[in-house]
Amino acid sequence: MADTKKFLYVNRKAPYGTIYALESLEVVLIGAAFEQDVSLAFLDDGVFQLTKGQKTDGIGMKNFSATFRALGDYDVNKFYVEKESLEERGLTEADLQEITYEDENDDWAEKPSIRFVTRAEMADIMSEQDVVLSF
To answer: Per CATH, the architecture of 6-134 is what?
Structure first.
């Protein structure tokens, strides 16, 4: 797999009110189906996509937040969340849903998919990718 390109999907928008968050998730699923090396980044209002207890009844939109927890089944297990974006929005790590994957290289141990990184670390992660798509 030496020629596998690394794709980073950058999520900057709130989960509802626009189609960006849902479209990003759909493109991630397509990329994973084609065995791309897929990572997700959540910054700015995109951190709200991972919050616990989302209720969408009042806005008439489908709540798709549970789909993030299924991405590990598609070998998508690198979720980078920018610490500063959380702090700027009054959120903490505890406000986010738990997203895990089973590590086949470690006797199927369940491990967290979310990695909390600083803004500087996020810039480094972005620079290491072959393709960066922003939503």
So the answer is: 3-Layer(aba) Sandwich (3.40)
